[in-house]
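Teaching soon. Got one?

===
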Amino acid sequence: MNLDKMFFGEFLKKIFSDTVQVKYWDGTEEKYGEGEAKFKIFINKDISKKDVIRDPFLTLGEAYMDNVLDFEGNIREIIESVYKNKESFLNKADMFSKLYKVLPNTLKKSKTDVQYHYDLGNDFYSLWLDKTMTYSCAYFKNENDSIYQAQINKVNYILKKLNLKEGQRLLDIGCGWGELVIEAAKKYGVNAVGVTLSQEQFKKASERVVDNNLDGKVEIKLMDYRELVGKTDKFDRIVSVGMIEHSGRKNLPVYMQDIRDMLNEGGVSLLHCITAQTEGEANQWIKKYIFPGGYIPSIRELVSLMADNDLHLVDAESLRLHYYKTLKCWAENFENNLDEIRKIKDDRFIRMWRLYLNACAASFHYGVVDIHQFLFTKGLNNELPMTRDYLYED
């Protein structure tokens, strides 16, 4: 066996928790592990050992995108097999994150980063999201809920947690395609403002406001929420779903200060975001190809910043398995609509997006990330229900 194949043999033996069969670029095959192989891996060309050692996330991710690396078997389960091995590189991202250069998330950079991901086109997202166009963790009240029903559940669950009252002012930071603000205005009679940096989301959300006859009740703004601070009346409720992960680590204190400054005294805020156990930058493949400028905050970072700003934590709930199931549904929808996706995206993009959806599903199932909803108030609020019963009443 040549030295390159010896390297990959040792590397692959150490990262999987299941037996794998590997077919190398010269046509030879090797099995690593005991018993029957659960997966088959194809290494179609030699991959630089130096690059794998320096950054396996970026190197192997690009190798898959370029069809240098391929799999036979369920790609999510293959990645889960690596996560289940606690000694694998997937569980040691901090070792590699120290190499990354982190640029500050200025207003201009935040806009560019968000548009990179969310302005891929409403036609693309509509092929695999549900009809609400909700692109964040759903909430499965029942095992057999469709992804559409689970997204409706999620929006209703968040609105219940906010304990909305008619006439209140609600701000949604990172409002996506507008489902939450539209539902809040329809169901609770609040006056809602949604902000987004995505041209595509702004266009679609604005159309939906008109379609729902909510002019004057719901306003969609194409802007960075930071441009609102000090320039608008304060809000009774502020919600943010899946936005803070785009802010960057250095802007976490800014976010909490801004929430404090924009909330009325006793006001309530809900932060729905991906979380990490410990602090560390996202891997370079994700930052280069999927979420430039992204940072996953740790739970303790967020809670500490709440305390610094007289924001009182009322409730924190993990939705980790809900996001696993959400991503699994999206990945299945993606595969079921490949014929249509191929009309607008090339093969490299498709392989990139397939890896992204399945790697994220694996990460929430057996990996290193979680997702939480944090409910907190500005100062003390003695009017929220004392139990959670109200969350589960229809």
